[in-house]
Write a structure and sequence with these properties.
The structure holds 2 protein chains of 2 kinds. Helices cover about 35% and strands about 20% of the residues of chain A. By secondary structure, chain A is an alpha+beta fold. Chain B has one domain. Chain B is globular and about 55 Å long. The chains are: A alpha+beta, B mainly alpha.
């Protein structure tokens, strides 16, 4: 039985409801509208940023070197924490994150105005996550984890990321909105490319209104070849081991660097600096103890671009080029074919009447040498003779610093502007520098200032001169290709890295290649190191360097190699700090690298011979 | 019979008024959602809210016309079977994966089906059939109570409450003694508070979830839920005529679930107080039209179904608006034919389709 009378009653009841609601809406929209509008004006929101995943870094074979994965993390909304509920959250966090150390745990609750990351929960089950979310102040967001797939192998090239500091804020304003900023290597140099757009969490009071997910940064592809990198590091380690076996000095040999540069483009194919570190250690926070230990051995320095060493005989290439280009040979000679008689020492008189004797590394002398054989055997006397000639011809004139000008023109004393941070420029000493130092650093120079002896030292890469391995590599590249450019890693590097014409004649290039080739062949200073290659050594070339260090320190071992004199593709520069003779250590290391570059069979790094 | 056949739209024609008002509500929904797409309009994209709603609307219109093929006799015959099917579906929800801690949907790829939306309609039909046959009301009360509990455990407090209200209203309209209805109402209210008390003391009992409790606690502590305070501000900024027609531009404020449960706030913002009056007047017009069946029809089933539908739609509108303006706690009910959502749209289309058929069988075509 349907009762119509009761329906009328029911309808009245419904109409009453509707009237009440309409009057309520009238109040909202008309009567108290102004109050609402001012409330809207007073509403403020603020934003918390979620770090974006950084772009990946690929090597020349598209091998992924660095990547970012999004992993779920538990966040604590501290605006919802008060004295009443803080204990619950403390217990929850301690129970679920037993690895969190006390310091970090305490830090969590300090800033009561924020979202804080509690920890990675990618290993938590769905049920455990849901349990956490039942607590109001817990939120789950994805947070990027940076992963370096080759650990130590790329530590100095790729660098690492860390939490931004106030310095980073100045350098990269966007880092205020991220928890990861490049601290070193490509990560720092290409920070603006790699960093993405952070996600935004919009807060109204303690409530989260809106979440915009972050956007990944741009990938970069670099010229590094990870296979070559492996071989280079292996070879350096073998060389270091060898150096330690043969050294009698008390200091252990640990620092070294090696660079492989593509001579035709200026692209870096490999760059290794030892000791290295594992950048993945920084991701979960490196312990102070580990950090101190790495810092003590200078593991964070990339010696390939930051190591400052006297170059020794590898620097002779500058005066070699000067002699050819200026026709400025030892006194009395006017071509590269002219010879001087090297008796193992050079003595000459200064204007003040005093007599100076310079001793070549080979006591009984190299015999009659011309420019080629002086290069081949690294004869100091021949180059000293050039220095004497410069000194006697130009002393006190504009051209007094002609050697330094040649050096600077080849990039020594200047940054190469490779696309890596913290590069150092070294020093090419001249009269001006010495005068400045007599004031600012009197301990470094004699009060007399710049003397002929200083030029004698400079021409064989000794004395106050310091260079970086990358400068040496780039200078050889310039002379071998008659182009100058900044070396680079990023394949999409800007126009600054384009090749510029450098005036070197083809004739000179042929001479240079030929003479570098002599070094690795019979009678050359690197012959012992390259002998193992047999006939394949016929096409390679190089220059050894052994730089003396002040005090007790052993010599710095240098080698510059080219993989082919007929068709140069790569220049290899190796330096082993306190490694001893260049012929003995750096040359065989580079030889093994060159074996890899020309796809020849690898043979272990074996001790060469002591020269220079 | 042939005289009634005015269109191809059903075997026996269609009621023009019901069809037009149904389409008009759908159009209002599209227009409101269009303003929420930042006036981007339709895009060929399953995530575009307007596109979704248009697809749902087409499905709803098809369902509307299909329902006019279903004679009221057949509907009455199938009422019991339909009821048990719906109870079965609600029960089988317990075997689905919970989403956000709630088991409320069957996941069918791009769309989800929410059986409790259909349960509301079918319970009205079932109860109408039961009451019109004048059977034992004790059994009916037990059956509906069980169903309400089942829905409450999903948990879906809003639907559970609305079914209770609709059922009580329909009971009230039958020949049951008024004191029984009052007793039932009292029992229901006390049971609700007892469950609330148990739920807040015992964590593991899933009668009322922590979520619901925190919602209700917020409400009783007289502090407005955040989303409600925001929607209230949004409604206020609509003013008399609405922002859609106004030159002044008030910065849009954030309202959660603006396209579904809180769409009324967006409507009020765009079309103002007059827009609300217009919308509610349309519903009032519909209800007053439906009332004609109560005087014209000889069938108690027709009357109970129509009265049940009026109760269902009114309560849903009242509860939805009350939620959006913060008069009652957030329950999660859509606004009929305005909110984005396939299950809701289609279930309301079922109501309009059945109503249409009742009108046709009672010879009312306009």
């Amino acid at each position: 039985m349907f009762l119509n009378k009761r329906y009328n009653l029911f309808a009245l009841f419904l109409i009453g409801f509707f009237i009440y609601i309409v009057s309520f809406l009238f109040d909202l929209q008309v009567l108290s509208r102004d109050t609402a509008l001012s409330a809207i004006d007073n509403q403020t929101t603020d934003t918390f940023y979620i770090t974006a995943p950084r772009g990946d870094i690929f090597d020349d074979q598209n091998e992924r070197l660095a990547t970012s994965s999004m992993e779920p993390h538990l966040f604590l909304n501290l605006r919802k924490i008060d004295d009443n509920n803080i204990e619950i959250y403390e217990q929850f966090i301690q129970y679920n994150f037993p690895d969190l150390d006390q310091d970090d745990f305490n830090k969590l609750f300090i800033n009561r105005n924020n979202l804080e990351i509690v920890g990675n929960i990618s290993t938590f089950s769905a049920l455990e996550r849901q349990k956490l979310l039942e607590l109001d102040a817990f939120e789950i967001f994805d947070f990027p984890i940076r992963k370096y797939n080759y650990d130590n192998l790329t530590s100095h090239v790729i660098g690492y990321v860390g939490k931004p500091t106030s310095d980073d804020f100045d350098e990269f304003p966007h880092s205020k909105n991220t928890l990861q900023v490049g601290k070193n290597g490509l990560e720092k140099y290409y920070e603006n490319t790699l960093t993405g757009i952070p996600g935004e969490i919009i807060f109204k009071g303690s409530e989260i209104l809106e979440f915009t997910p972050p956007q990944k940064g741009n990938d970069i592809s670099i010229s590094l070849n990870i296979e070559t990198q492996k071989i280079v590091k292996e070879s350096l380690l073998q060389g270091i081991e060898l150096a330690n076996e043969n050294e009698d000095t008390k200091d252990e040999v640990i620092r070294s660097a090696s660079i492989v540069i593509d001579v035709n483009t200026g692209a870096i194919v490999s760059m290794v600096s030892l000791p290295d570190f594992n950048p993945n250690q920084f991701i979960n926070g490196i312990s102070n103890q580990d950090f101190e230990q790495l810092n003590r051995v200078q593991a964070f320095n990339n010696f390939a671009i930051q190591g400052l060493y006297p170059p020794g005989s590898v620097f002779k290439v500058v005066s070699y080029w000067l002699a050819e280009n200026e026709g400025l040979f030892p006194e009395g000679l006017n071509s590269r074919r002219g010879r001087v008689d090297c008796k193992g020492s050079l003595s000459f008189g200064f204007d003040d009447g005093s007599q100076q004797v310079y001793q070549d590394w080979k006591e009984d002398g190299h015999g009659r040498v011309n420019l080629s054989s002086a290069m081949q055997q690294s004869c100091n006397v021949y180059f000293w003779d050039i220095a004497l000639n410069i000194w006697r011809t130009y002393e006190g004139t504009q051209n007094e610093s002609i050697l330094q000008n040649y050096a600077k023109d080849l990039g020594f004393g200047e940054l190469t502007n490779i696309d890596l941070p913290f590069e150092r420029n070294g020093i090419i000493p001249d009269r001006e520098v010495f005068e400045e130092w007599t004031v600012s650093r009197p301990d470094l120079v004699r009060p007399e200032g710049w003397l002929g002896g200083d030029l004698m030292n400079l021409i064989i890469g000794q004395g106050a001169i310091t260079v970086t391995p990358i400068q040496v590599a780039n200078a050889y590249k310039t002379l071998l290709t008659s182009t100058s450019s900044s070396p680079y890693l990023n394949l999409e590097a800007s126009d600054n890295f384009k090749l510029k014409k450098y005036n070197v004649s083809d004739e000179f290039i042929d001479f240079l290649k030929n003479d570098l080739n002599l070094v690795t062949n019979k009678n050359g200073t690197a012959y012992a190191a390259f002998e193992v290659m047999g006939r394949k050594a016929n096409d390679v070339g190089g220059k050894t360097g052994t730089a003396q260090n002040p005090g007790e320190k052993n010599n710095t071992s240098w080698f510059v190699g080219i993989d082919s004199v007929s068709n140069p593709q790569h220049v290899v520069v190796t330096v082993v700090e306190e490694g001893g003779s260049g012929s003995a250590i750096a040359a065989p290391i580079s030889r093994r690298i060159i074996q890899h570059l020309i796809s020849s069979e690898l043979t272990p790094v074996r001790y060469g011979e002591i020269t220079e | 019979m042939n005289a009634r056949k005015i269109t191809l739209l059903g075997p026996q024609g269609t009621n023009i008024f019901i069809l037009l008002i149904f389409l008009f509500f759908i159009f209002i929904s599209w227009f409101t959602l269009y303003t929420l797409t930042d006036f981007q309009g339709l895009e060929f994209d399953v995530d575009n809210i307007l596109t979704r709603q248009v697809v749902f609307s087409v499905a709803s219109i098809i369902v509307f016309f299909l329902l006019t093929y279903l004679s009221i006799d057949n509907l009455q015959n199938y009422a019991n079977i339909l009821f048990f099917i719906v109870v079965g579906l609600l029960g089988s929800l317990y075997f689905t994966q919970p989403r956000l801690g709630v088991r409320r949907w069957f996941d069918l790829g791009p769309i989800d089906i929410q059986p409790s939306e259909f349960a509301k309609v079918i319970i009205v039909v079932f109860v109408a059939n039961y009451l019109s046959r004048n059977l034992n009301k004790g059994i009916l009360i037990a059956l509906i109570f069980g169903t309400v509990l089942l829905i409450n455990f999903q948990p879906d407090l809003g639907t559970a409450l609305i079914i209770s209200f609709v059922f009580l209203s329909m009971l009230l309209l039958s020949n049951i003694k008024l004191r029984y209805v009052s007793l039932l109402l009292l029992t229901g209210v006390s049971l609700f508070f007892i469950f609330l008390e148990i739920g807040s003391r015992v964590d593991n009992i899933n009668i009322v979830t922590q979520y619901q409790i925190s919602r209700l606690n917020e409400f009783f502590s007289a502090e407005l839920d955040f989303s409600q305070s925001q929607s209230r501000l949004l409604i206020s900024s609509g003013g008399l005529f609405g922002q859609y027609f106004a030159a002044e531009n008030i910065e849009k404020i954030f309202v959660p679930v603006e396209t579904t449960d809180f769409i009324f706030a967006a409507y009020a913002y765009n079309f103002g107080f007059f827009g609300i009056l217009f919308l509610l007047a349309l519903w009032g017009l519909l209800f007053s039209r439906l009332r004609r069946i109560l005087t014209v029809s000889n069938s108690d089933f027709d009357k109970f179904v129509i009265a049940g539908f009026i109760a269902l739609l009114s309560f849903q509108i009242i509860i939805n608006i009350s939620t959006v303006v913060g008069l009652i706690p957030v329950t999660g009910l859509p606004f009929p034919l305005l909110s984005l959502g396939g299950s809701s749209m289609v279930s309301i289309a079922v109501i309009f389709g059945i109503t249409n058929r009742i009108f046709i069988e009672n010879n009312i075509t306009i």
